[in-house]
Amino acid sequence: MISIDILPEDFLNTAIKDNLDIKEYIIAVKTDINSLGEFAPSWVILTEKYLYCISEDFSGTEKYDLKYIKEVFAESLVSIGMLTFKTDMGYVEVCKFSNTLVPKFSCFASVTNKIIRGEEVREEDIDKNVEHRCEKCGKYLPNNSMRTCPSCIDRKAIILRLFAYGKKFKVQIAVITLFLLLTTIFSMVGPYLSGTVFFDYVLTDNGKADVFGVDLYGKVVLIVIILVAFRIFSMITNIIYGRISAKVSGEMVYNIKTDVFESMQKLSMKFFSNKMTGNLMTRINSDTNEILYFFIDGLPFVITTVLNILAMGAFMMAINPWLGLLCLIPPPFIFMFFRKFMPKFRKMHNTLFRRRSSMNSRMNDSFSGMRVVKAFGKEQAEVRNFGRDSMRFSDSAVKVDIVSSTVFPVIGQSMFIVTIFVYIIGGLFIINGNFTFGLMTTYIGYMSTIFGPMSNLANTVTWASYAMNAANRVFEVIDAVPDIKDCEAPVSMPDIKGDVSLKNISFSYEVNKPVLHNISVDVKAGEMIGLVGHSGAGKSTITNLITRLYDVNEGEITIDGVPVKNIKLEDLRKQIGMVLQDTYLFIGTIAQNIAYSKPEASLEEIILAAKTANAHDFIVKLPDGYDTMVGVGGSGLSGGEKQRLAIARAILHNPKILILDEATSALDTETEQQIQEAMEKLVKGRTTFAIAHRLSTLRNADRLMVIEKGRLVELGTHEQLYKAEGVYYKLHKLQQEALKIRGVE
Ligand code: ADP
Fold first, then answer.
1. Is the dihedral of CA 189, 195, 200, 203 positive or negative?
2. Core vs surface per residue 542-572: b (16+ CB within 10 A) or e
3. What stretches of 369-378 show up as alpha helix (H) in DSSP?
């Protein structure tokens, strides 16, 4: 039996008791969310005859007969994934899951499809990578972008590494530490002045009122002034401390962010297209912010609280060990209690939040689809559904309220009980003359300083573990080894000629989904090759492999006889230019954008390139000419203009091998002509691979490669292929007819 997830024994037994015949299952995968995006685990199970979807608590079971299923699909949608299958009647949704589970479900779908087709399922059909297990303990990872699970993270190494970022700020960190000590001293001095000094020295005239040779008896105003001065002093140190620490943490995090960004730039395209692009910004921003906030707020809080406990505890124990002990017994219990209680309380809050969102989305859904609701007479069903959601939300809200209105007052009162004991025992000590009223007031002041932060200290432990996880994720990216990198002894090729050979290449972006099959072609330097085929046939993929954005799975690509894998990446990238469908312009001036490939280019060179690309005329008409700023992605410019800038960029780059991916957007005849003309100038003397959606634009190509479903089905000149009346001929005819319908000759 092959399985990605192993069905738990209990689950299997209960299912069998419920007459669900899943004992001999072939493959099983656990989903994590339901259709509302709520956490609700279910098992999707495949047997020889059926596909099951059973919720973990057996509250719902679906059983589909494989006889009626044509094909199963695991799709990745924007934020979630979905398992569906096709029947003669249409598509049926089996379940939804979070995007991290897409690889598992893809594997599930491919195994199911094999069973449907009656093919044999082999060990290797299960991609071991989909398991996403921790490298150290082998447990499932909460997130497939991690390599080690949170419990296996080497915290010590991470902390040391984080501190290594602080090396540059030794002086500032020394000042911060000094200020943290000062804060502790101030928080000790406050209750001491207002308690012991005030009551025992200032208000008591019994011969003890002599502090540092100053008789304080009756000096009420003086002590109040000292108290206020301490307050002001403490405020100033806090401000200075806050400013220095914000600056240092900010700069440290800036350095971490730069390191992450830099290593991301080195990573291959596979990393970016691995459906985790959305995660990348989160990684750079939230993870580093998590670390930042922990450094600014969390760590200093822990340090001051611990210092307070130590210093105040030592003072209290030294003056009166019994009373000191009484004050210091509760904090560990309070801390432990919050440690245990807080995660549960947070979980309750999360449930409340989820239920509120699903109730709101239900309302939103129902109101927006009111026409459909009414048309199908579904008002009562909607009311029932809403009632159920609303009830679940209100159950949750009641639970949270009951807990918070019970637990927190109880904790507050238990602290008060300790204070009462201090009053009783302290009072007895005072009567016996072993303690003073002032000292007791100081003790009570210290107690509240120590007890107060206990609940937060418990939170900080969780916070620290979040920050550690964030740091771990960040360091994983920093340490990631790019899979497209120079080989051990790369061949330096500063001047390539441009012969390109594809030798039996095959490729897939994802396991079990081959995109290219066994393609071979020899292209001579300076030749222009047109890539033709339906959308999704694999044309861009071929160019991605030539430029080594990805590496082939099988076969080899050579340039001037040297395998691209062995060519120094820097040399390769310098000599391959691309003009892509959607020209990406970075924020900056037009001139900077043209010179993106050659920042040292002079303005004359830039203008010459723009003129060759037929872009000069429109550029000079812009308000600031070459200095006109363009926005993200080149907003403010038309498709044709952006394309000409891309051509100018490529002309300046002056590559030996050129990849052209023609834009599909409709352009007016004049613009099209100008672009065509610029392209002709651009391709001269370069080996060119051109993907054109309009076949007429490939008339100048020396040869055409016709790609169908990832295979090279025809290769030859336009005339040869046209005469052969094969795939190309059909494509050509189809397109001509389509153009005629649109009235384009
Ligand atoms: P074409 O250029 O002929 O339109 P492509 O080479 O872009 O086709 O795509 C070929 C196949 O590879 C398509 O099925 C497409 O969905 C898939 N594909 C393209 N890029 C990726 C990617 N980054 N990850 C996974 N699949 C991809």
1. positive
2. bbbbbbbbbebeebebbbbeeebbbbbbebb
3. 370-375
C-alpha span between 509 and 511 (Å, rounded): 7
The answer to whether residues 717 and 704 touch, using CB atoms and an 8 Å cutoff, is yes
Alpha carbon distance 657, 577 (integer Å): 6
For ligand 1, the distance from its centroid to the CA atom of residue 272, given in whole angstroms, is: 14
* Whole-number Cα distances in Å, 469 to 262, 279, 441: 20, 15, 43
Is the separation of the CB atoms in 35 and 80 below 8 Å?
no
The tokens describing 327, both together, are 């004050």
Residue-wise pLDDT for 14-61, tens only, equals 888 888 888 888 888 888 876 566 677 889 999 988 999 888 887 778
**Contacts with 41 (C-beta within 8 Å, 6 or more apart), sequence order:** 30, 31, 32, 55, 56
Amino acid letter, 398: V
Residue nearest to atom 16 of ligand 1 (CA): 536
Q: Residue 610: which of 622, 601, 619, 623 has the closest Cα?
A: 619
Partners of 82 in beta bridges: 75, 96
Residue 733 DSSP SS3: helix
- Contact yes or no for 108/46 (Cβ under 8 A): yes
The rounded distance, in Å, linking the Cα atoms of 651 and 606 is 9
The pLDDT of residue 389: 87
pLDDT in tens, 418-475: 888 888 999 999 999 889 999 999 999 998 888 888 777 777 877 887 788 888 878 8
**Residue 284 contacts residue 260 (beta carbons within 8 Å):** yes
Residues 487, 499: Cα–Cα separation, whole Å: 21
Across 286-439, where does the E strand assignment appear?
Answer: none
Question: Could you tell me the end-to-end alpha-carbon distance of the chain, in angstroms, rounded to an integer?
Answer: 61
Report the DSSP beta bridge partners of residue 28. 45
Residue 435 burial (C-beta neighbours within 10 Å; 0-12, 13-18, 19+): buried
Pairing of β 554-559 and β 562-563: antiparallel
Q: What is the position in ligand 1's atom list of the atom closest to the CA of 535?
A: 4
Mean pLDDT of the chain: 83
How far is residue 563's CA from residue 515's CA, in Å, rounded to a whole number? 21
Amino acid 529: pLDDT = 94
493 within 8 A of 473, measured Cβ to Cβ:
no
**Residue 616: helix, strand or coil by DSSP?**
helix
103 lines ligand 1 (CB under 6 A): no
Is the Cβ–Cβ distance between 576 and 655 less than 8 Å? yes
- Which of 106, 269, 509 to mutate for ligand 1's pocket (most ligand atoms within 8 Å of CB)? 509
**Which residues, other chains included, contact 258 with Cβ-Cβ below 8 Å and sequence gap of 6+?**
none
Q: How far is the CA of 648 from the centre of ligand 1 (A)?
A: 27
- Closest residue to atom 18 of ligand 1, CA basis: 509
541 CA: nearest ligand 1 atom = 6
Q: State if residue 542 touches ligand 1 by the CB under 6 angstroms criterion.
A: no
